[in-house]
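fwd from M.: "can u put these together and see what the complex looks like"

so here's what she sent:
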Amino acid sequence: MSDFDAARAQMVEKQLRERGIEDERVLEAMGAVPRENFVPERRRELAYADAALPIGSEQTISQPWIVAAILQALDLQGTERVLEIGTGSGYSTCLLGRLADHVISIERHSSLARGAAEHLRVCEAHNVELMVGDGSRGVPDRGPFDAIAVHAAAPAPPPALLAQLADGGRMVVPVAGPAGHEAEGETLTLLRRHGAELESTAITPCRFVPLIGAEGF
Ligand code: SAH
């Protein structure tokens, strides 16, 4: 077992299982995907730290627990078509690829998207499609999606994305506090569609980089 394998196993037990992540498919996927392949070379030693890490272009790869909380809330069974906004390093994209049938992931920084494409090639993630652009509007002609993961903080759940959420579908998005209270951080929020109704559940307080775009900031 390499040091990275041991650190990954320990992350799953200490940071995830002991802190309430119980979806066995999520725990299995996070125990299998080499997070060290998605962080910059000079930060590899910190790959399994209980923290977000810089990945360039002023962006971060999210803390493992937050990634797990998003994945668990999406309640994936393996058959879903998934839309992800904010590819970043490609780490969460790779996990979504293992947990669902097909993933479309959008990143607005082309340099990050290029890096993610390389990381995902190394990890042999073949059911993921990367796009560069403003993901806050989604991809209307490719929807509806059974699950949507937004990895950047929005002022409100983006209406365009909600419109692309299938009946029974789940969307997770960090929602910022009201104007003037943005500094207090965000609430990771689950929205579940039941026909025309949307059920909203707060998962946890959190801090994300802002969603920049038509339906973001
Ligand atoms: N899921 C990533 C972490 C992403 S951080 C990982 O596992 O590494 C959030 C990302 O959202 C950043 O890379 C940022 O550039 C991107 N982003 C912000 N606004 C966006 C938008 N409107 N469309 C697409 N990507 C966006």
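replying to her w this: Helices lie at 3-16, 24-32, 64-74, 91-99, 110-122, 159-163.
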